[in-house]
Specification:
Blueprint (H helix, E strand, L loop, with lengths): L17 H12 L5 E2 L5 E5 L2 E8 L5 E9 L8 H14 L3 E6 L2 E9 L6 H24 L26
Antiparallel strand pairs: 1-2, 2-3, 3-4, 4-6, 5-6
Helix pairs in contact: 2-3
């Protein structure tokens, strides 16, 4: 028997935030278990990572997909290296932006969402790009790579691997 004083967790009315309702539908259809956090953002887990979608309704709705990762103490504790890696990732990928906020890596992707936009494709591709960006950032920070896009170099994660048989 259920507690008669507890209320079920119903989604908000669709007219409260039409874009958020569409995002919830897409995530549920894709097998995620989305929830709405205290800020009104949609939260869900993808490949073990907590991600969020902020929906801003307006004349042209805006959708921001983002995640935050606390930088572990075993990572090089060099803010300049972190920021250079953020810069490399942001300049290397379309849509994705990276930054550091208080020892946390923040990765975002934003889209203007028109009524005809393929929301499922936007969410799927942005989630994959976010997770790829985290890996690129980590590779840049831990790889000892000193080349950076901003200085005319090419970060290690963008360089072609040596062909088989080539000397390293």
């Amino acid at each position: 028997m259920t507690d008669p004083t507890s209320l079920p967790n119903f989604p908000p009315p669709s007219d409260e935030s039409p874009l958020r309702g569409r995002v919830l539908d897409v995530l549920q259809d894709e097998g995620f278990r989305p929830d709405i956090d205290e800020d009104g953002d949609v939260s869900f887990k993808a490949q073990g990572n907590q991600l969020f979608v902020k929906c801003m309704d307006g004349e042209v709705p805006l959708m921001r997909v983002f995640g935050q990762w606390q930088i572990a103490d075993d990572q090089p504790q060099d803010l300049t290296k972190w920021l250079n890696a953020c810069n490399d990732v942001s300049l290397s990928l379309n849509i994705i932006k990276t930054g550091i906020a208080g020892g946390t890596l923040v990765v975002t992707g934003e889209h203007l969402v028109h009524p005809g936009s393929d929301l499922k494709m936007l969410i799927q591709s942005t989630v994959q790009m976010l997770l790829q960006a985290v890996g690129m950032w980590h590779s840049s920070v831990t790889g000892g790579d000193s080349d950076h896009v901003a200085t005319g170099g090419q970060p290690q994660f963008l360089q072609e691997p040596p062909a088989e048989g080539d000397a390293q």
